[in-house]
């Protein structure tokens, strides 16, 4: 009986760990993609700003 309970607890713990592992991976992926988009956005904005400042005046 105790072995059955222990095996059920181990399965529940594995399911919780896999859920937290998936959540952590998804959160990390979202942070990585978000930082990449911010970097691309800032670069594009600065490039556009540079073109407007110096491209039109020439």
Short description:
The protein is mainly alpha-helical.
List the helices and strands and how they pair.
Elements: H1 2-55
Would you write up a description of this structure?
The protein has 58 residues and is mainly alpha-helical. 93% of the residues lie in helices and 0% in strands. The protein is built from 1 helix and no strands. It has one helix at 2-55. The protein starts with a helix and ends with a helix. The model has no long low-confidence stretch (mean pLDDT 85).
H/E element sequence: H
Query: Which secondary-structure class do the elements indicate?
Result: mainly alpha
Large-scale geometry: rod-shaped
In percent, how much strand structure appears in the residues? under 5%
List keywords for this structure.
58 residues; 1 helix
